[in-house]
Amino acid sequence: MSSPSSSSGSSQQKIVKPSWDELKAESADQAVGAALNNEVEKRKEGKGSAHVQSRLRLFSSDEKAPKITLYRDHAGWCPYCQKTMLLIEEKEVPINIELVPMRSYGDKPAEFMRMVPGGLLPALTIEMENGRKQTITESQVIMELLDKWHPVSDGYKPMLPEENDSAGWSKYDFLARLERELFSWWCTLIFRPEGPSGGSLMGLLDRKKAGLSGAMQGFLDCLSKVEKELASTDGPWFYEYDYPTMIDFVYISHVERMLASSAYWKGLNLRSPEMRSKYPALNLWLDSFDKRECFLAFKSDYYTHVKDIPPQYGPGYNGGFSAEQEEYSKIITGKNKSWSLPLPHDDPLQPLYRGPPLPLCVLESVGISAGSDGTYENADPNLMAKTCRQMAAWKLSDNGVNVSRFASRGGNLGANNPRKPFGAELADPYANPDENALPHVDAALRVVCKALLGTDTSEEEHQAYITDLEASLKAVVPPGSKTDVIDSLAYVRDRVGVPRDLPLASARQLRAHLNW
Fold first, then answer.
1. How much is the pTM?
2. What was the pLDDT predicted at 197?
3. For residue 430, what pLDDT is reported?
4. Residue 391's closest CA among 420, 356, 358?
5. What are the φ/ψ torsions at residue 445 (nearest 5 degrees)?
6. Considering Cα of 452, then 26, then 500, then 365, what sign does the dihedral take?
7. CA end-to-end span of the chain, whole Å?
8. Which of 21, 48, 160, 318 has its CA 20 to 30 A from that of 178?
9. DSSP, residue by residue, 391-404
10. CA distances in angstroms from 482 to 417, 443, 492, 514, listed in the order given
11. pLDDT tops 50 at residue 279
12. CB 468 within 8 A of CB 13
């Protein structure tokens, strides 16, 4: 099959109809695909970098069959599973992992429900000496036990103060209460009508002129308390360690959701230059998390969060800074062409390059390395964009047939399928595809994948390349099926999850190419 391999805009467009096997082979021949395939093999052995779909983590341990199994959510939505996984990764605890749906987007297996009748996640089982298994729930208890069972004397990092460190435990108790206070103010701000507010972002820096609602003022005041605690240590963390500990994980899983919800429902961007000056220690803490590859594996994006928060916490209410709220909500959901090509190098709300935007194995495979400050903000934008696209192509080509069937649910006949309702707005686990649209959706997705695989060296070349491929799209989609194909590509675009499917830097490329 003859096909263009780069974006040299040709005068005579060629029709390409690659198979999924050909696309998968092309991806495997690229440095990005080869690195990711190698990482998949490592994961099977419990090695390699952190990944949201890992089923076994052994790290450097010689243990082949851990007696501990963690049950966590499949999509990476659960904040309590996230904080538990971050502790496991940072402490390098050998463990088995089983993935279970949250009830907001799927049915839990009967076997799990027999073991945990309430269906709570996360859950932990430990194999006892008599062969029986003990089940433990509640993330706080699980994290404490994992730290206790893997002590410093065995070479593991401590995640909690030493038993006789009364000052350390006093600080931990204070910080834990403060986290609950922050959580309470967040719930008040986001999940209740906010009440009168005449505030503006410009006035926020001048407390006398801010005119904020009581809920917004309480939330920001509580953030200032957190800022003070973070600023009290020499490093970026709550304790004087050179790595995050359990209390950092307790905070970050909900602070991550606060960032997304505050921007979307309230127009408050806590990572803006203005907020960086107001909360420098908080932003240093966030940047420091971003620099850790294991955090990338479990970090979601704002779009995924504004879809996964309501079924877990209730609906959010618009308010806050109205002009910014309208703008940010459109950016987050792709309604102002933020999911359209060509994409800007960085995201306007979610900094992509304060740490590794992709797994280190991918970045290293193409020669992208961090600067002296640990960020990737000075990396070549064209090389970064190509690498992000090719990771998306690898993901798509690896499961293309199933993705096509999934996407085809968005066709006209698929939309008529009977649905079992779930709490999550976009959850649709039992829908059937539109069989009439399926072959055309499959063909279109293969052209999209071909576009993502392009070896273009600049954004201009890539735009020329996909322009050449437009003839292929038109050739594989009959006029009568055009609407079904467009609706099907939009269906899967809106369900690209971070981190379940891809990290944000790569997911945004996939979403934009599905909009092409």
1. 0.94
2. 60
3. 86
4. 358
5. -65, -30
6. negative
7. 24
8. 318
9. HHHHHHHHTHHHHH
10. 20, 12, 16, 14
11. yes
12. yes
